[in-house]
């Protein structure tokens, strides 16, 4: 079975004897959180540091998702890996895959996904917790970077499906803010136009309530690139929020 290994990371993995599925499956590490035991299997995440490089190693067993294309199920990491590759091809900033592989072992469905750690980045959740401490130019720069990321994502015809602050990572370099996405398992093509776009944006706006209506307007201005559309979109977001609250 062919495994994916990023060319940039192959030398490091080979130097440490970790350029194979079996080696990455058996390496002893401490999990960064409790295993996910839903879907009839388990999935765990570990931090792996090699030389001056850091990774997150994710291993799972019988942790499957079922779709029309895979009615008997496939590892959730397989879907996430495809989406990581798709984002890279479409130019949507996201986490980078270093290794992917899957195996069937005595009826057990195993999968490994190794990604580059986003050291030097912080999720939007972290920035929102510090919101009262930030000056207005920095707030606007962060919101603008998130709006630009959403614009790039939707222009590429993709819906993230979990567009939450904890899945949006940001960093500042030379006065310029960059944003990228993680957790791509639920990504799918935009099928319903504005409806899907509003559906993607509303959870973000709801969870980032501390930015206020003016912050949302700035977000939409960066996202839409047309000031005339900001108020109609804001109204639609508010309507969806109220509809969800009434359920």
Automatic annotation (TrEMBL):
InterPro entries from the UniProt entry: Kinase-like_dom_sf (IPR011009), Put_LipoPS_kinase_InaA (IPR027023)
Protein name per its UniProtKB record: Lipopolysaccharide kinase InaA family protein
Molecular function GO terms recorded: kinase activity
Keyword set, alphabetical order: Kinase, Transferase
């Amino acid at each position: 079975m062919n495994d994916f290994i990023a060319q940039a990371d192959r030398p490091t993995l080979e130097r440490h004897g970790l350029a194979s599925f079996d080696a990455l499956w058996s390496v002893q590490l401490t999990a960064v959180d409790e295993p996910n035991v839903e879907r009839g299997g388990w999935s765990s995440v570990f931090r792996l540091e090699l030389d001056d490089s850091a990774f997150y190693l994710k291993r799972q067993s019988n942790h499957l998702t079922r779709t029309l294309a895979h009615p008997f199920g496939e590892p959730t990491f397989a879907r996430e890996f495809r989406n990581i590759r798709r984002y890279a091809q479409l130019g949507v900033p996201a986490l980078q895959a270093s290794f992917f592989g899957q195996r069937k072992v005595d009826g057990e469905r195993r999968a490994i996904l190794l990604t580059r750690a986003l050291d030097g980045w912080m999720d939007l959740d972290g920035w929102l917790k510090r919101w009262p401490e930030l000056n207005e130019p920095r707030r606007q720069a962060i919101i603008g970077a998130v709006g630009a990321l959403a614009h790039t994502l939707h222009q590429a015809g993709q819906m993230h499906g979990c567009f939450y602050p904890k899945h949006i990572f940001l960093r500042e370099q030379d006065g310029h803010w960059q944003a990228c996405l993680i957790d791509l398992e639920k990504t799918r093509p935009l099928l319903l136009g504005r409806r899907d776009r509003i559906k993607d944006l509303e959870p973000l706006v709801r969870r980032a309530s501390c930015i206020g209506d003016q912050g949302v307007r700035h977000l939409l201005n960066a996202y839409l690139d047309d000031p005339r559309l900001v108020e109609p979109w804001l109204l639609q977001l508010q309507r969806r929020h109220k509809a969800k609250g009434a359920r």
